[in-house]
């Protein structure tokens, strides 16, 4: 019997999700035994035209990592969707927008201005920014167009499964592979992770949830046995799906939310803001002002991985 065909792709991605697949170590051989890899830009030299030449739905499983923020990424997402029977949003960026979607707090012009003009390491006296088309003596060069708004994969094409994490942990990757191999994939739309919150899985001692001051992680040495949030460190556990193996918590660091919202929560950042507001003990305008000042970068903390998938989705664009 022919092996199933597997495709992997990276869109707006750091490459960490691809490395996570390689991090399966010797289990990568199980994956290679199970499936023929027909497209994987980071590891195998297939070209886009090879994918275009495939029959529709001839790829059995596509693991798509990275958010969508350019015309090229959108085009390849649509191409792989046409060619794949099962499409998996793989990693926080594909599932929720992830770190790249923090760009939704600005827009393309703001990014170009900062990256190509203002950044102190630049030497760009002409103020050159990338153009979609550039005429040179040899002809015309073309670059993909960058969008103003970073999108999740499911905002571009239908997706069957979501594997969260930045990057997804090896055991969840193997769980997906084994569910697929055993013909036991759950109903479409499922998130391959825990159905609990991270707090439900966290073994730290939880007491009375009251805080009067917020600390950044470097400002105190937290007790490794007690809940970090109760020690005044913003931890996204109450608003985050479990299943990561408590990777940050075990390193005595707060959760930053890379598994996205738990079941039943539409907006991870709003849920976290509500959780913190409910335990903050300071009263009166002065105390509230102090708390807001102590909470450095609230938007980037509450929506670090989930802005594109949130109710806010992005900062309002200037009227043109
Ligand atoms: S989810 Fe994390 S590891 Fe994966 S591409 Fe995004 S930033 Fe990189
Ligand atoms: S807030 Fe963080 S440290 Fe506290 S119980 Fe939840 S996951 Fe654990
Ligand atoms: S503790 Fe939070 S941020 Fe860290 S890996 Fe788990 S879900 Fe992601």
Defining key terms:
single chain; 320 residues; alpha/beta; five-stranded parallel sheet; two-stranded antiparallel ribbon; globular; binds iron/sulfur cluster
What does this structure look like?
The protein is of the alpha/beta class. Helix content is 29%, strand content 14%. The chain has eleven helices and nine strands. Strands 2-1-3-5-9 form a five-stranded parallel sheet, with helices on both faces. The chain has a two-stranded antiparallel ribbon with strand order 4-8. 35% of the residues are buried. The model has no long low-confidence stretch (mean pLDDT 94). The site of one iron/sulfur cluster has 12 residues, from loops.
């Amino acid at each position: 019997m022919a092996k199933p065909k597997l495709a992997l792709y990276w869109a707006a991605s750091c490459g960490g999700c691809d490395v996570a697949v390689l991090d399966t170590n010797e289990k990568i051989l199980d994956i290679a035994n199970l499936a023929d890899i027909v497209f994987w830009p980071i590891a195998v030299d297939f070209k886009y035209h090879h994918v275009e030449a495939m029959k529709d739905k001839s790829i059995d499983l596509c693991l798509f990592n990275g958010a969508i923020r350019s015309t090229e990424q959108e085009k390849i997402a649509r191409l792989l969707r046409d060619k794949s029977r099962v499409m998996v949003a793989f990693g926080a960026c594909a599932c929720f927008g992830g770190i790249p979607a923090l760009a939704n707090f600005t827009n393309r012009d703001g990014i170009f201005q900062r990256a190509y003009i203002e950044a102190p390491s630049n030497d760009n006296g002409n103020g050159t920014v990338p153009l979609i088309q550039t005429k040179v003596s040899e002809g015309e060069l073309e670059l993909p167009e960058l969008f103003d708004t970073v999108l999740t994969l499911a905002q571009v094409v239908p997706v069957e499964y979501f594997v969260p994490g930045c990057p997804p942990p090896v055991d969840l990757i193997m769980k997906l592979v084994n569910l697929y191999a055993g013909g036991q994939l759950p109903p479409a739309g499922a998130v391959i992770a825990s159905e609990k919150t991270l707090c439900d899985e966290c073994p730290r001692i939880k007491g009375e949830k009251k805080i009067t001051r917020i600390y950044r992680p470097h400002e105190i040495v937290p007790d490794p046995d007690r809940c970090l949030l109760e020690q005044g460190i913003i931890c996204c556990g109450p608003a985050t799906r479990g299943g990561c193996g408590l990777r940050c918590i075990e390193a005595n660091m707060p959760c930053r939310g890379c598994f996205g919202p738990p079941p039943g929560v539409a907006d991870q950042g709003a849920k976290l803001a509500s959780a913190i507001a409910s335990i903050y003990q300071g009263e009166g305008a002065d105390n509230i002002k102090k708390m807001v000042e102590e909470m450095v970068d609230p938007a980037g903390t509450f929506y670090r991985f989930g802005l594109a998938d949130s109710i806010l989705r992005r900062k309002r664009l200037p009227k043109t």
